Amino acid sequence: MYEVVVNLHMHTRYSDGNAGHSEIAAAAARSGLDAAIVTDHNVYVEGPEDVYKFGDRRVTLLVGEEIHDQARQPQKNHLLVFGTGRELAHLAHDLPRLLEAVRQAGGLAFLAHPHDPAAPVFGEADLSWEAWPAQGIQGIEAWNAMSEFKTRLKSRLHGAYYALNPHQIARAPFSDVLGKWDELLNEGRRLAIVGGSDAHAFPMSMGPIHRIIFPYDFHFQTVNTHLYLPVPLGADIEENRRLLLDALGKGRGFVGYDLPASTRGFRFTAQGRDRTAWMGEEISAQHGVTLQVRLPHPVECRLLRNGKVLKTWVRRNTCAHITTEPGIFRVEAFIDYLGESRGWIYSNPIYVTR
Predict the structure, then answer these.
(1) 110: which residues sit within 8 A by CB, 6+ positions away?
(2) How many other C-beta atoms can be found within 10 angstroms of the C-beta atom of residue 320?
(3) Contacts of 181 (CB under 8 A, 6+ apart)
(4) Range 162-171, long-range pairs (CB < 8 A, 24+ positions)
(5) What is the pLDDT of residues 148-207, one digit of tens each?
(6) Using an 8 Å Cβ cutoff, are 3 and 228 in contact?
(7) CA–CA separation, 52 vs 237, rounded Å?
(8) How many Å separate Cα 354 from the centre of its chain?
(9) Which domains does the chain have, with CATH numbers?
(10) CA 207 to CA 220: how far, in whole Å?
(11) 3-state secondary structure of 129
């Protein structure tokens, strides 16, 4: 398998961002990304999808959409839509019809920022997802960088501090989002998770301070989605789109917080008697299964089964656990950064069946 790093959920000048598609592709190349997925609010922008070249680097830029009902106040239930190739925002008022249209178009639908608290000091409303059980989706944005930023905005002074010190913001995905995901998995739903930057590159002015809050280059080094592909990305945008969307939909990857240290190289697999399963896949428990974890650095690692911590390792690069029991197994890893333990890696599940 070939690992690629993707940043998704971002905005351009077509909605409320501060750059164009080619500028975002250039920022992605500077940040070492392999791909980026733009999701402007309620507008599908045709044309910019391409494989952009910058020296010896190539970046695949895909175009999706963040769809929500603009007539609703506040505008809850934001949906990230990938791979449809056409505008679907006119269906935002009717979620079942929207999800069916995404399915018919061969696309994917992920809940955007399921927990997105209000920040009244800055006039930001609570935009959390409310339309449960959300049948018809393929996954959940488990870690949204801007939603987490909103929780830090207790005052204007806090806003100025974190704008000037963005590396202090991220701690981990919201526990209630991970809990809801585990709940849905335990109900039999096969749902993948992704991490989204929700990048806008906002211009900010507070007294004498004038700057861009969280430039795309910064966002692209923080919360990313790492995917595993059967072949490397190439120069064909159609083939790259197919590879990336297939891995996204199947959950063949993990969410990585790459600012403290790159999460490239993480592996979570299950070895059975006859085959190996990757994240997003299933494998039979018959004859026993060895769950294997490889980490880029020796950190704290937790193996969870059906949402409960089964085993914890400390300061280990490699971890293994043998099971004959079925269950939904996933991994969380934590790294020390700036004086505290922070979430670092959140894998998609491996489904061990009877």
Answers:
(1) 79, 80, 82, 137, 138, 139, 140, 141, 192, 194
(2) 14
(3) 140, 142, 191, 193
(4) 163/204, 163/206, 163/209, 163/211, 163/213, 164/209, 164/211, 166/213, 166/214, 166/218, 167/259, 167/338, 168/338, 169/145, 170/145, 170/222, 170/223, 170/257, 170/259, 170/342, 170/343, 171/340, 171/342, 171/343
(5) 999 998 898 888 888 888 899 999 999 999 999 999 999 999 999 999 999 988 777 666
(6) yes
(7) 10
(8) 30
(9) 2-257 (3.20.20.140), 267-353 (2.60.40)
(10) 28
(11) coil
- Pairing type for strands 209-213 and 202-206 reads antiparallel
* pLDDT, tens only, 247-286: 999 999 999 999 999 999 999 999 999 899 999 999 999 9
Residue with tokens 């670092």: 344
Q: Which two tokens stand for residue 131?
A: 């339309």
First to last CA, the chain: 26
Give SS3 for 22. helix
Which residue(s) pair with 63 in the sheet? Answer: 38
**How far is Cα 222 from Cα 262, in angstroms, rounded to an integer?**
9
